[in-house]
Amino acid sequence: MGLRDVLFGRKKLKDPARERLFAISTARITLQSELNLKPAGAAGVCFKSLSASEFVRAENELQQLLDAVAQESGSKVERKSDDMGFEWLVVRDDGFEDLVASVHLIASELQDRGFGPQLLAAVFPFEGGGFDEKRVYWIYGFKPGAFWPFVPTGQGQERDNAEELELKAKLEQELPIEQDLTRWFALFNAPL
User: pLDDT at residue 50 above 70?
Assistant: First the structure.
């Protein structure tokens, strides 16, 4: 599908693939048992900021969404913006399955309310292991329906590519991994 097809309405952009998100729930066992990485108790849903006309409608809907997710799951949900202009819905919950379910519910609700094309990624931080107590992130891209690891070095905007490839190799049997490494974007400014 080319850009020209999308612009002239011949093809529709693909909706986010949400169901593959649940694979992180089972991969958590391998992350904990084999890599000593434990969930950090938070996750985030990142989406593109909205235009001024969309913002008025979305503002009320987003607040309703936050209230509904908090009531249904018991998770704490807050809205934040990062310094790159992206919007975040940050979920905090000590139960990892509840955390994943809340992230899925948020993504589903955003898509059902017409904001699916703005959905970018879900981010799950893990701590511990041999990573000098730094965080390891598993990022889920909603459009490709795939995960990739992100390991910042703590030195500015640098990432540890060797560790990321090692994590890919260890978990590609359990997670749908994005095979195109050029799509493994980093989220240094994630407000988690």
Answer: no
Largest CA distance in the chain: 51
Section 101-119 average pLDDT:
85
Give dist(CA 12, CA 180) in Å, integer. Answer: 23
Contact 80, 88 (CB under 8 A): yes
Tell me the three state secondary structure of residue 35. Answer: helix
Token duo for residue 117: 């094309």
Confidence of residue 97 (pLDDT cuts 50, 70, 90): very high
What are the residues facing 92 on neighbouring strands? 42, 76
pLDDT grade for 166, boundaries at 50, 70 and 90? very high
pLDDT at 71 > cutoff 80: no
Q: Check: CB of residue 141 under 8 Å from CB of residue 178.
A: yes
Number of Cβ within a 10 Å radius of residue 134: 14
| 149, 167 Cβ separation under 8 angstroms | yes
For residue 182, what are the β-bridge partners?
A: none
Strands 86-92 and 42-48: antiparallel
d(CA 123, CA 144): 15
What are the backbone dihedrals phi and psi of residue 121, each rounded to the nearest 5 degrees, phi first?
-155, 160
Task: At 191, give phi and psi (nearest 5°).
Answer: -85, 50
